[in-house]
Amino acid sequence: MPDRSKLELSDGVRLHVETSGPADASVTVVLLHGWCLDRRTWHHQIRALREQGDVRIIAYDARGHGRSGATLLRSATLAQLGADLAEVLRAYAPAGPVVLAGHSMGGMTIMEYAYAHPDEFADRVAGLLFASTTAEGTTHTRYGLPPPVARLFRAAEQAGAGVLARCGVWRPHQAVLPALQPAVRWLLFGDDDFKPGDLQVTMSAVGRASLRSIGGFRASIGEQQRLATLAELGDIPAAVLVGDRDRLTPPACAESIAATLAGTELTILPGAGHMVILERPDQVTAALAAITARAAGRSCDGYEQAA
Q1: Which of 191, 200, 190, 277 minimizes the C-alpha distance to 239?
Q2: What band does 140 get if pLDDT is binned at 50, 70 and 90?
Q3: 0.90 cut: is pTM over it?
Q4: pLDDT digits (tens, 9 = 90+) for 81-134
Q5: N or C terminus of the chain with fewer C-beta within 10 Å?
Q6: Chosen CATH of 3-306 out of 3.40.50.1820, 3.40.50.1110, 3.40.30.10, 3.30.365.10
Q7: How do the domains of the chain map onto residue ranges?
Q8: Distance separating alpha carbons of residues 161 and 157, to the nearest angstrom
Q9: How far apart are CA 215 and CA 194, in angstroms?
Q10: Which helix (H) or strand (E) holds 31?
C-alpha cells in the first residue's frame, strides 16, 4: 500500500500525495495527471513500477483536483502548477535522479517547471515521458470536428469555462455523472479497447474536480507556448505518446514536441484517444520503464518480458 500524506504548499493549499517504493531507490518517478482528473488515472503504471522494486513513485492530486485542497481562482494556472511541482520535489525527492511523467495538463506542468526552474530541472531530471499533451496550448485542438464547427465549439467552451471558473468549489455535476458519461467518453477515449473500470475511474475523477478547477485552468491551458523551453533542455531521454484519435491533443501536438526536444521517441497509438495511459497501459508503461531504466543506469528487460 502507498504512503499517503498531505503537503502544505507555500500558499496554504494542501496536496494529497501518495508515495511507494524505497526511500533510497536509485530513481524517483513522479506522475502528474491531466486537467479535471487525478492521480488514479496512473494506476496501471503505478502497479507495474511497484513490481520493479528499486523505484520510488510519487503521485499526487494537483490543487483543485482529487483529494487535494481547493485553489483560488488566481492560482488556477499552469505556472502555479509548475511551482507546486517544485515544492513536491523538494519535499519528497530532495536528492537523486528524477523521471517526470505527465499526462495532458501534467505534461504542461512539467514544461512550466522547466521554464521557471531551469537550473533545478537540469540538475535533477534524468528522463521525461509526455502522454497526450501539448506545448502549444490549443493551437492544434479541433475536437475531431471540421474546422468551422471546431471554432464554434471552442468559442462556446471558452465562454462556458469563464462562467464555471466563477462558480467556486461546488461539484454539482457529481449528481449527474451518468448523464455526462457519453460526452466524456466521446471526448476522452478512442475506440472501445479499454476496461470499463477505467472509464469509471475517469468519471469519478471528473466528479471530484470543482467548477472553479474545471473552468479556471482553461485559459492558462489554452495560452501556453513552451516549445522554446523544450528546445533548451538538451539531449534528455524522453518519450512522447499520443493516440491517433485524440480529440484534445492530436498527433500534431506530439509531433511538434518530438521535433523540438532532442532525443525524443515518438509513438502514435492507433485507435487510442486522449486517455492513452488507460487505453494503452502496456505501451505507456513500457516506455516509462525504459526511460526509468536509462535514468537509473540499468536494463529494463525484466519489464519487457513481463509485459
Answers
A1: 277
A2: confident
A3: yes
A4: 999 999 999 999 999 999 999 999 999 999 999 999 999 999 999 999 999 999
A5: N
A6: 3.40.50.1820
A7: 3-306
A8: 6
A9: 28
A10: strand 28-32
